[in-house]
């Protein structure tokens, strides 16, 4: 097993030396009172006289082989013959993969591993090893009290091919470290800084350059078989998991199980239990890694009733099945067709283990082997240490699966209302399962058919007109500011003053569609650069102050004054937020009446849509009474929103009014989720008629009148037939008794709209209390 000297970078040069051990022998020689011990030590020391390198140190590894017998005699006290078949022990060159002077047990382990096997420390990279070496210098030379106990392991296969794991204990009593001329002696502050930056290899190499120190001596390695413990640790990071950045299974899982159970020919299978559908499911990403012989046969052979009964029974009796030798099974069992599945797949020993949590089945595992006796009660006992880890892994997988499904819904669709999320989830789950199996799956469109729609809007009245007038106020104020500033500047500003006069006249007398855009361009390209220039040259403090105050009023995005329109936008935002919050809060009660799809939009006011039907909530009994209850809820809610608005509108920066409308539509419609817009929309030409009516009602008038059908302080209900009129008069009567509506119901006809005739309306005033 002798190899070339360890070539990796280190902060010291390494010399093989037995000086410190020979010093121990010298001490025994002159201080031990037992004569036989003294004679024994003297003979050892005498034998080393012709090999001065043992004391002075050497780097020629071949000398170890040439003097193998001498070194064996020299180290006999450290390697007792009586323990040579029990201990796994060897001498070693520090920080190398070179070992020598093995115990018999260590020799046999290396022999079983094969001629081409080379010992290497697992899972430690070059930088980590370099810093580890530096820490030894801190301990040995600088006497720093630090712990450098990085766990070190050898992975060595046995003769059956099972990877065994051995923890390494290093005795470095016979090593010593010296500085050279190239060594740097850091201060205590520097040493503390280094220990605070354990991952900064450049910093460590700055103060501990390569081969700037000397290490002389040898170490003693003692190995302990900890295969089960290491395998359990590896299982923690190798259990089923999802990494969408790298959809590849961890194929080491089977090898880890082989090490853990010490079964060289082992197959592992796992299926997850789908509680909703009461069935077992494969883990797609691991289909080519796991071997589900028994579980495959079970789910493909028994009918659904038997499977469901079995799953129910598992809640009461979840004991695993362990068969050491299938040939010892009862003769009656051997006659069953299920026995053939074992022989057909060369299964001679197996374990089938249900994984339970809180008396609920999460998954079922199977371990199979062609070798008789591979599994028994003792192997099952080892599962006790593994069960909690498996539960954690399955829970983590379930959480990650749900998280990724939600992410797919959010990415591919949008934030979906709870009433319809189940259908999106079903589709996303199919997409997710296909992606794990590296299969292509095209997401299907989500649609719901035969729904009854409810539409309502609380519209802020005359907001466009108000915005236009406030825009004029802002721009006129801005022109006035500019004129005052430019009048105080030199003659360079005369052309700007003329241009401002033209715009002022145009704004107040003959405004055009592009007036505002041309004014912005004049500001952005000419006036504002001119004023900025004045700030950068010698200008009077008065003018500079005026310019700075002017720019403080300018909205950077538009180059325009925004003060008056800001008050309007703030007022609209306050109204929208208040109305939307009330509507959302009331929606909680509406969903309790019957779950339905709900959406609302904020613009200059708040509008909402409700879609009710069996296809959205297939698990509940749906009747026309549901629609009547929700229509009454809608009218009552809009009345409360109007009354609340009346109580807070006096506090708005700009006085506003709202007018509310409900549109009653009896025909069933379909809605479809539009992937391009990430929202639901009515589906098909026939259903679009409903949307057209909604849009044209916004500014519709009473027939043969210039008066709008909506009015502030009143609720307007638009409908087609007398049946709806009767229905809503009953709702109005209820609200009149509660003092919410007044007794002034108006019966109106709506003007003929393009392609729409025969619309009727009820209009009633809200209580003034």
From TrEMBL:
Domain of life the protein comes from: Bacteria
Protein name from the UniProt record: GAF domain-containing protein
Organism: Chryseobacterium ureilyticum
């Amino acid at each position: 097993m002798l190899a070339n000297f360890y070539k990796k970078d280190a902060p010291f040069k390494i010399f093989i030396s037995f000086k410190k051990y020979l010093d121990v022998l010298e001490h025994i020689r002159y201080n031990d009172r037992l004569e036989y011990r003294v004679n024994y030590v003297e003979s050892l020391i005498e034998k080393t006289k012709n090999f001065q390198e043992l004391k002075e140190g050497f780097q020629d590894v071949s000398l170890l082989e040439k003097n193998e017998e001498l070194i064996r005699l020299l180290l006999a006290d450290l390697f007792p013959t009586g323990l040579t078949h029990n201990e796994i022990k060897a001498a070693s060159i520090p920080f190398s993969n070179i070992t020598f002077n093995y115990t018999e047990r260590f020799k046999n382990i290396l022999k079983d591993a094969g001629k081409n096997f080379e010992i290497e420390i697992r899972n430690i990279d070059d930088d980590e090893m370099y810093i580890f070496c530096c820490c030894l210098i801190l301990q040995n030379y600088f006497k720093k009290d630090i712990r450098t106990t990085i766990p070190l392991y050898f992975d060595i296969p046995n003769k059956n091919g099972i990877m065994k794991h051995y923890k390494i204990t290093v005795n470095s009593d016979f090593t010593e470290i010296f500085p050279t001329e190239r060594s740097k002696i850091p201060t205590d502050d520097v040493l503390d800084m280094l220990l605070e930056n354990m991952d900064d290899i450049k910093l460590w190499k700055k103060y501990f350059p390569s081969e700037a120190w000397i290490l002389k001596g040898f170490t003693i390695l003692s190995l302990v078989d900890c295969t089960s413990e290491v395998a359990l640790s590896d299982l923690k990071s190798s259990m089923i998991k999802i990494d969408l950045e790298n959809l590849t299974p961890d194929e080491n899982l089977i090898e880890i199980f082989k090490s853990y159970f010490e079964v060289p020919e082992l197959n592992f299978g796992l299926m997850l239990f789908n509680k909703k559908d009461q069935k077992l499911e494969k883990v797609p990403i691991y289909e080519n890694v796991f071997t589900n012989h028994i579980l495959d046969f079970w789910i493909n052979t028994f009918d659904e009733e038997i499977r469901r009964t079995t799953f129910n029974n598992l809640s009461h009796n979840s004991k695993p099945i362990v068969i050491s030798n299938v040939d010892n099974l009862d003769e009656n069992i051997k006659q069953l067709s299920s026995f053939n599945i074992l022989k057909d797949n060369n299964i001679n020993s197996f374990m089938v283990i249900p994984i339970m949590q809180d008396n609920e089945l999460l998954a079922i595992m199977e371990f199979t082997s062609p070798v008789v006796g591979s599994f028994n009660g003792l192997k099952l006992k080892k599962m006790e240490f593994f069960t909690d880890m498996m539960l954690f892994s399955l829970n983590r997988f379930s959480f990650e699966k749900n998280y990724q499904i939600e992410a797919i819904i959010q990415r591919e669709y949008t934030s979906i209302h709870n009433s319809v999320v189940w259908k999106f989830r079903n589709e996303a789950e199919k997409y997710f399962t296909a992606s794990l199996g590296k299969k292509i799956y095209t997401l299907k469109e989500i649609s719901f058919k035969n729904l009854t729609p409810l539409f309502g809007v609380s519209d802020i009245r005359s907001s466009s007109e108000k915005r236009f007038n406030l825009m004029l106020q802002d721009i006129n104020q801005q022109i006035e500011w500019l004129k005052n500033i430019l009048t105080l500047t030199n003659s360079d500003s005369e052309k700007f003053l003329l241009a401002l006069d033209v715009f002022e006249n145009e704004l107040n007398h003959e405004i055009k569609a592009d007036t505002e855009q041309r004014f912005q361009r004049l500001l952005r390209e000419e006036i504002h650069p001119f004023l900025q220039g004045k700030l950068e040259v010698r200008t009077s403090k008065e003018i500079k102050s005026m310019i700075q105050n002017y720019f403080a009023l300018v909205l950077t995005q538009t180059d325009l004054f925004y003060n008056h329109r800001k008050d309007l936008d703030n007022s609209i935002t306050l109204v929208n937020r208040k109305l939307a919050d009330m509507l959302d809060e009331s929606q909680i009660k509406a969903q309790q009446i019957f779950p339905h799809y709900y959406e609302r939009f904020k613009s200059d006011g708040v509008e909402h849509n409700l879609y009710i039907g069996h296809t959205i909530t297939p698990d509940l009994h749906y009747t026309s009474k549901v629609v009547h209850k929700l229509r009454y809820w809608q009218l009552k809610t809009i009345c409360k929103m109007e009354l609340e608005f009346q109580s807070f509108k006096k506090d708005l920066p700009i006085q506003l009014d709202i007018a509310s409308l409900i549109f009653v539509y009896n025909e069933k419609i379909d809605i479809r989720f539009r992937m391009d817009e990430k929202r639901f929309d009515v589906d098909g030409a026939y259903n679009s008629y409903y949307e057209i009516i909604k849009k044209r009602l916004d500014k519709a008038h009473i027939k043969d009148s210039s008066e709008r059908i909506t009015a502030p302080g009143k609720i307007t209900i638009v409908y087609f037939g007398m049946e709806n009129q009767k229905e809503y008069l009953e709702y109005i009567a209820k609200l009149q008794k509660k003092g919410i509506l007044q007794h002034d119901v108006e019966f109106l006809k709506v003007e003929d709209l393009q392609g729409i005739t025969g619309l009727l309306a009820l209009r009633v005033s809200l209580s003034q209390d």
